[in-house]
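Please fill in the sequence for the structure shown.

STRUCTURE ENCODING:
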């Protein structure tokens, strides 16, 4: 009985060992088959018999992963070599731009001279006594609108004080003690009486003091002002000098003068540009609501764009042409902040 049992155990052990050997042999065969199917059969078969260092000629038969970069270490190296062959530039070098030939057309540089516009010159009584041409250095047509808008935003932002300020929850006085306990009250939990959700609390995302000014260089401001003046040439009226014309400061005299030259200050906005200090003219104009008076060296883009009529003295007109004309030498006028 015991002998038969031991015979059966020995037979089972032999069968298990044989099964293991068969499984190992099958695995080796499958692995070699996979190696050969991937194109590396020569390398795998020679690894058994070839000594160390005998694999150099065998690697030459292996195909690269990317046939497009054969002979190069990487795609970047191939592109660098091709670029050098085409341009002669090594990695890191750049093209040297040739100087641009100066423009000879009407659009030379960033500004152009506007076509002359003939303006009538009137005397103090409103009679035409002569004419003059208005031609300023203005922006190109494709950039004029954007440049004038930037100058307008520059002037308006310069007028902003930027002093508006509110207090947040941490800046409001009080609120250090918890109003009531967290639970057992039936109310929503609160940690402070100065929460932004209650009256007397802080302000969420409120304004804080800031600087609203923007940058714009002098040349751009000058060209933008000249563009605005030239575009308003149809509304410009030239008058003779007002020296000694207003003997006393009277609003009626100024209103009558504006009516004689073609402006209606009661119905439209008027900008009067005088050269120098005209005290009586200034005092006569200050009670007219829609009339602004200024000098050519301190014009404001807001007044020029908002005016329905622009009345200029002859001397002020000559000063303006020296500032915004072809031979510009003086500084461009900067916008002066005014009270809101």
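FILLED IN BY: designer on duty
SEQUENCE:
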């Amino acid at each position: 009985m015991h002998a038969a049992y031991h015979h059966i155990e020995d037979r089972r052990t032999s069968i298990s060992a044989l099964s293991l050997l068969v499984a190992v042999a099958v695995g080796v065969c499958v692995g070699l088959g996979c190696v050969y199917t991937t194109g590396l059969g020569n390398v795998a078969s020679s690894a058994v018999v070839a000594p160390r260092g005998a694999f150099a000629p065998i690697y030459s038969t292996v195909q690269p992963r990317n046939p497009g970069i054969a002979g190069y270490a990487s795609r970047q190296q191939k592109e660098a070599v091709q670029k050098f062959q085409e341009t002669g530039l090594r990695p890191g070098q750049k093209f040297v731009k040739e100087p641009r030939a100066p423009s000879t057309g009407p659009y030379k540089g960033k500004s152009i001279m506007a076509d002359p516009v003939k303006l009538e010159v009137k005397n103090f009584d409103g009679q035409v006594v002569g004419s003059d041409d208005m031609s300023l250095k203005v922006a190109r047509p494709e950039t004029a609108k954007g440049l004038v808008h930037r100058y307008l935003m520059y002037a308006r932002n310069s007028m902003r004080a930027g002093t508006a300020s509110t207090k947040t929850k941490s800046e409001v006085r009080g609120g250090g003690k918890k109003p009531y306990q967290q639970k057992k009250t039936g109310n929503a939990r609160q940690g402070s009486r100065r929460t932004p959700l209650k009256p007397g609390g802080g302000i969420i995302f409120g304004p804080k003091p800031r600087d609203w000014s923007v940058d714009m260089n002098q040349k751009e401001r000058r060209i933008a002002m000249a563009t605005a003046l030239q575009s308003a040439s149809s509304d410009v009226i030239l008058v003779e000098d007002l020296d000694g014309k207003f003997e006393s400061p009277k609003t009626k005299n100024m209103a009558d003068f504006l009516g004689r030259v073609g402006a209606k200050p009661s119905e439209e906005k008027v900008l009067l540009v005088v050269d120098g200090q005209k005290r009586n003219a200034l005092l006569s104009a200050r009670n007219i609501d829609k009339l602004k008076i200024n000098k050519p060296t301190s014009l404001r883009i807001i007044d020029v764009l908002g005016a329905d009529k622009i009345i200029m003295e002859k001397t002020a007109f000559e000063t303006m042409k020296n500032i915004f004309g072809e031979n510009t030498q003086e500084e461009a006028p900067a916008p002066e902040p005014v009270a809101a």
